[in-house]
Amino acid sequence: MSYAYLFKYIIIGDTGVGKSCLLLQFTDKRFQPVHDLTIGVEFGARMITIDGKQIKLQIWDTAGQEAFRSITRSYYRGAAGALLVYDITRRETFNHLTTWLEDARQHSNSNMVIMLIGNKSDLDSRREVRREEGEAFAREHGLVFMETSAKTAANVEEAFINTAKEIYEKIQEGVFDINNEANGIKIGPQHSPTSPGGLAGNGGQGGAQGGGCC
Amino acid sequence: MISGLQVALKNAIDVIAPPATPLEDFTYHWKQLMNFYVNHLSDRKASIESSGIPRHLDRLLEILLTEEKGEDSPGPCLEYLLQHRLLDLLATLAGAETPPGMRLVCLSFLRKLLGRSKHPLLHHVSVYAPVHRLIALCNGHLASPIEAEEIQFLLTLCFLVCKYPPLTRIVNDASSVHRENSVPKEDTEKIDAQRITYVPARKRNNSNPLFEPLNTQAVMLINPNLFATDSEGKLSHRPERYATDKNTSTQDILDKIPKTTRNTSTRSSGSISLKDVESISESSSPVSQKLPQDPLPVTNQVVSNTNDYGSSSQVPVSMASASYKVENKFQDPTNLRIDSDFASDNNMEYMKEHSKNHTFLEVPPVTENSKCFLVDALISYLNTADNTVRVRACEGIMVLASLDDSAFAHAVSRSDLPTVLSKRLEALYNSIPAHVDPNDVDEVDVTWGLDSPMWTNDNKFPGCRQVAAFFMWLDYCDQLIREAHLEVGEAIAKTITVSFFDKVITPALVDHHVVLITALLTKCLKEISSPLLSTEISHWLVGQHRDPELPNVWTTPILHRLIDNCCTESNDLTLETLKLFEEMIEKRNEHILHCLVLTYLITRGYYDNSAADSAIASWSDEEDEREREKKGTVDLSREQNHSRTLAPTNIHRIINCFLSLVPRQLQTDSDVNNYERYMADWEKQYSTVLTDCALLAWPLEAVTIDDSASSDSRPEADHCSARFYMGPFLTMILDKVSNIPNQRYEINLQLTVVISRLALLPHPYLHEFLLNPLLPLAPGTKSLFACLQRVVKQLVSDVPKTQDYKHILRSTRQRLLENCSQEPVKENILYDSVIITEEFCKELAAIAYVKYHRSM
Ligand SMILES: Nc1nc2c(ncn2[C@@H]2O[C@H](COP(=O)(O)OP(=O)(O)OP(=O)(O)O)[C@@H](O)[C@H]2O)c(=O)[nH]1
Ligand SMILES: [Mg+2]
Fold first, then answer.
1. pLDDT at residue number B294
2. ipTM of the complex model
3. pTM
4. Distance in Å, CA A154 to ligand 2 centroid
5. Which of A13, A82, B611, B831 has a 20 to 30 A CA-CA distance from B854?
6. Which chain B residues contact residue A212 at CB under 8 A?
7. DSSP secondary structure, B685-750, as one string
């Protein structure tokens, strides 16, 4: 299927917080009650529409297990968006966010949009992390925040779509260089990339891009 | 053949059967599963779907997983599974692929069981032995329709190994199995099937020592001694003894074993009762009797090792020895007690220490190749056509390569891994079509995990897919080197450098596709980020020696090849090679910069000491320096942390030199101070450069090494006799600068980019050499500024020869810099050169100012 843009996402967070379930809910609209822990990295894809434009999301669901951290580090690079997930019923998953964030910031490109997700909102009775705490953490670190339930599907669509919107806005603002695929963004096949056309108008043989202004 | 009706009937019976205990339920399903084989002794081709096997296995798994919920110690079903070696039989059936599809089902069953169980399981001989055999079945070299399941199974094992590092050796030691394609003989299998089917479901026997280890799993994991035992049960002091004579003992034992007794391979079947065990013990006992004091596990291992794998058609040779170890162990109550003491101790730290020091005991020494059994299996999938499968294999290898276990890392570093990685890189490189436009190469931005050659839009440019596949692989190698254990990383980096860059790229640099190859090399350099590979590549590029070369004595073949490539007739090659040099500088790799330029400058041979003395009044900077030297307070500069060399007080004079170099009549930019518009950009870049170079331990100030004690007394002539040599690279660059009026615009542009990159580096000697036109130079020393002066001189004499030159220059400027021109102007190297010289001078001024500003 043709699309205007393709965004690459990764989902990160401690084991058992519901990363795979979020992906499954988003791509297949179903819930998986058994914890089949992810070994390695799983892949999913779906088409969404933003601003009347078809956008393809390619999503990599990483393993939360410590043992696979070396692989996860490889996947940060070249992702346009990340869903950083914790489990509102397990405080330690919230406490680990700082480490996750550091890891992500260190290994990803600086423009990567990170969405903080407090999952399992359906289990309100067992809640250990208040919503306000999530909000505060997100504010402090400049993330978008949302509570979701992979079980009831509450906010799941929104989480993925809002992340895409954020990326889309960044593209409109020119923050993302869409010609550089290292950013995790591709232009769809029918929108054949306009030839870089030179750094016309930015005056002179700008050293920045290593020359080649003409 | 079970008819559809029969299946339906059976299903119905399953459903209406009265509730049973989990164990009854478990054994029921197991027997049902086995019944298939009894009923189909002659017909093995019945489809797996009609066999009901998958369904029974699912139930078995379900029962096992339910059983461990809430229970910390293993339940009776798990014990049954271990005790009766059900997995052994499954592995045999998987090996025989009976019925067709059995392998897939077994792999999936085991993967789920191992992955989901909260018990480590893998350290049990009745688990790891069949697991070894299943690993041996997973071979990516043979096309297999169930590749995906195979790799998922292997990846699960990787995961377990990471989760429980002591399992590393158990899983990777292939001594208990060998990769073989021979399928077990049918008749033995029949017997297997019969035996297993009719094993009476025995009641759990608490006094049976077989059950003990299940309760002390944790101990078994961290205390591998549990596997190693001698009949005397003296556990406590043995490890130390092993540690010391580990190297010799194996050989000793080998020597002592008479050839005839070396292999008494006993066919071990799925179900082993105690009686079986005893007979197995007997079969290996000749060895142990011979060497009563020697470590049994080692001898056993040796026995199975020396067995000729290639010709043996019997499967689990060392199953016997392996089981013997364990059984023997279990029969010795003393050992168990000691081990449970360990457990009750709960002193994890101590136990970790303990196991760390003696982990080799887990798996006795085996032949070199088999130490990476799991790694080898994963490696076999690296060249598979299925990208998903390959990426998974890559993941598994990365996980194993990064294990913090130096003995294992050593084994991996000596495995096939480095060669296979490098060979694949070479193959992908060779598949890149020669017609790929070198300019397109840089556009390819891929990572190994997030991209797939299949998704690569080949419309982008022809050959894009192949280029992408190559760089994905390079990215994987680079990331693997970065994440891997140091020893593994080093081995891979070395192999790739030697086998790929040196063996393949080096000769290609004179090839007729050298332009494309240079572009690929530039991109490689750009993408490589792991320190180990960067170091290796830097050595390959500029050589390992750090001393300056003598003029005309070339010791670094690649560097000189590149420099030669800059000086050929081919503009494309010159351009591409200059881009490579730009990248080499941009890497800000200490070694590359040192060998390329710095080693020639740090003696400050370009500087004229005597001139400084006489002309001191005009160079406030030099004055400052002389003051510093007089006071002998060179360290003072260290404290202030700001370089005076980079921030000379006469900065305005310096900037003026650059800005007024091109005379008014040739200037096309009305606003001379326009150099400021370059500033913001350089400012930003300089911040990055400063951060990158902060750790390079470069000196702060350019000072003449004080050999004055003798130089005062020395005659002046002597002092200047050693002529300054700026090295082959700078010589080439300055030659090119002198040649600006005769070179194409693209070349000149790239040349100025390279020089700007160099000039931006916060190295005091390099700085003053390139950016201080007021520096007194030793006689006969070329400098950037002097070269530019000569260029301008030539331009001034040549350009005005044309009447309308001012107008032409203006439109040339428009064409080049504003990228638009009303009237098409014909390219003219001479006019182009005027523009580029003018702009280059402004850039140099901007850089000088930016550096000044930041060093204030
Ligand atoms: N009630 C409830 N349970 C959830 C929700 N999301 C996930 N779970 C459960 O949490 C467990 C773990 O979910 P997974 O999605 O497999 O966890 P994961 O983050 O992918 O874990 P790893 O793959 O090990 O990193 C499963 O048992 C899910 O059923 C949710 O929104 N509500
Ligand atoms: Mg998961």
1. 35
2. 0.85
3. 0.77
4. 19
5. B611
6. 749
7. HHHHHHHHHGGG---SS------HHHHTTS-HHHHHHS----HHHHHHHHHHHHTGGGS-HHHHHH
